[in-house]
Amino acid sequence: QVQFVESGGGLVQVGGSLRLSCVASERTFASLTMGWFRQAPGKEREFVAAVNWSGLTGRYTDSVKGRFTISRDTAKNTVYLQMDSLKPEDTAVYFCNTDPAEDSYWGQGTQVTVSS
Questions:
Q1: How far apart are CA 43 and CA 20, in angstroms?
Q2: Are 41 and 57 within 8 A, CB to CB?
Q3: C-beta separation of 23 from 30 below 8 A
Q4: CA–CA separation, 92 vs 70, rounded Å?
Q5: Measured between alpha carbons, how far is 36 from 57 in angstroms, rounded to an integer?
Q6: How far is CA 61 from the centre of its chain?
Q7: What is the pLDDT of residues 56-100, one digit of tens each?
């Protein structure tokens, strides 16, 4: 069964940084575009960033451009999200998935809380 395991979340102050990691259970995902998504309390899950199979092309939602960087290490079957200059509005549970996302692939996510 396909599984993504997210980690790296935590509590950080405004302006701080965190690095999220997502390990995929199958190497078949090495050829797919992978994405990070987030869901804040009381809101729908939203797209944050995606990286193509080569790791050379990333795209971001406007609110995180210039602050977040997505990358991948194919050898480790891992996708990363470096988050800098964090803001309170970045507080959410962060998930990884293919992009576009597959409903059956959602994992538990990792909580990011930014305190002001």
A1: 21
A2: no
A3: no
A4: 17
A5: 14
A6: 12
A7: 899 999 999 999 999 999 889 999 999 999 999 999 999 999 999
Burial string for 13-50 (b: 16+ CB within 10 Å, else e) reads eeeeebebbbbbeeeebeeebbbbbbeeeeeebebbbb
DSSP run (H or E) holding 39: strand 34-39
Q: What DSSP line would sit under 49-79, residue for residue?
A: EEE-TTS--EEE-GGGTTTEEEEEEGGGTEE
Beta bridge partners of 11: 113
Pick the closest to residue 2 from 97, 72, 95 (CA basis).
97
Structure tokens at 93: 């549970």
